[in-house]
Amino acid sequence: MNEKIKLTCPCHFGLESVLKFEINKIGGENITVTDGRVSFEGGFEMIARANICLASAERVLIELAKFNAKTFEELFQGIKKIPLENFIGIKDAFPVKGHSLNSKLHSVPDCQSIIKKAAVERLKEKYHTGWFEETGSVHQIQFSIMKDTVTIYLDTSGTGLHKRGYRKNSNSAPIRETLAAGIIDLARVRSSSTVCDPFCGSGTFLIESALKALNIPPCINRRFAAEKWDCINKKVWQEERSRAISLVDRSAEFKAFGFDIDDESVTLSEENAAKAGVSSRIEVSCRDISEYKPLDGSITICNPPYGERMLELREAEQLYKIMGQVFKPSKEHPCYIISPHDNFEDFFGKKADKKRKLYNGMIKCNLYMYFK
């Protein structure tokens, strides 16, 4: 199989433009953007490159088919037409999962069952067998049914791409690595930047900033579901890893400084930075927010604590007031703050130069950007 494959990467809502830029940079072709996902084309090498290198993508999916179905028969026949044998071998496992929204076929378990049955029938005909042991590598089939439009994917990533491998432990409310990477891109972190995070927690902003600045592929140290697929030559993965490593910029002047009121968070950040291979670029110390003094020319990026209970909420609002006093955002010292509080600017004491709606998990947030 040498022809182009259609790939789709889901992402956090609000980061589509960031992901599009990343995909363009790694050589993705015919890029199209929709809400919460970016699609593009490439060969097997692009499957490997996207998994290894994309910082803001949640996973890399192969889009197998798109068709309309209002009945189970239409769903069955639509699946049966897909050349699954191009990817799935006679011994491979092919579980099915997905979702349905605003569609005639609204029962997810029934849709799962029909899709599985149709896949089995297709592969039975191709492999001339009546039984599949499914003991081989996993080819996760995913379906999305939206307004009677069925889209069928194969998941090449396995575990979500936010699992970089450096953060085995985290504090109680960590920001997802993929979201952090997107915010860092919006904050225009470069190879010569200095980044500060006064609420560093488990060090995610610091580490993701270092990875971006040094051009270190975020998922270079982990494995992916498609690495075990027989249809992709192992050499492809080896070559793409070598290519990615060759582009790392160890000459970058980047430095990052993290602070946290909690000793355990400081230790955690240091441990995670060491696992990510960027500890020489990151300094972390214990410090209260009231003592924060941004370094000259540094970019402050943070996810301040936020409580949903009334007492915690009042404490968070008090914190925002202190932040406004000590951050002193300006053109020389830009600040990027993510918060779900609708009135953050009132407590911070300054209107943001720009705001962007983002979702941290299921929580609707704003990224408050101060750069003037």
How does this structure look, described?
The longest helix is centred in the N-terminal third of the chain and has 20 residues, at 108-127. Helix 4 links the parallel strand 5 (96-101) and strand 6. Helices cover 32% and strands 23% of the residues. The radius of gyration is 23 Å and the shape is elongated. The mean pLDDT is 95. By secondary structure, the protein is α/β, with parallel strands linked by helices. The strands form two sheets. A seven-stranded mixed β-sheet has the order 2-3-1-4-7-6-5. The chain has a seven-stranded mixed β-sheet with strand order 10-9-8-11-12-14-13, with helices on one face.
- The number of distinct helices, counting runs of at least 4 residues, comes to 10
Q: How would you spell out the order of helices and strands?
A: EHEEHEHEHEEHEHHEHEEHEHEE
Number of strands: 14
What is the overall silhouette?
elongated
**Which sequence of strands runs across the widest sheet?**
2-3-1-4-7-6-5
Coarse structural class: alpha/beta
Instruction: Tell me the radius of gyration.
Output: 23 Å
Determine the fraction of residues in helical runs and give it as a percent range: 25-40%
- Overall mean pLDDT: 95
Which blocks of ≥5 consecutive residues have pLDDT under 50? none
Q: Major sheet, described briefly? A: 7 strands, mixed
Give the termini distance in whole angstroms: 51 Å
β-sheet strand percentage:
15-25%
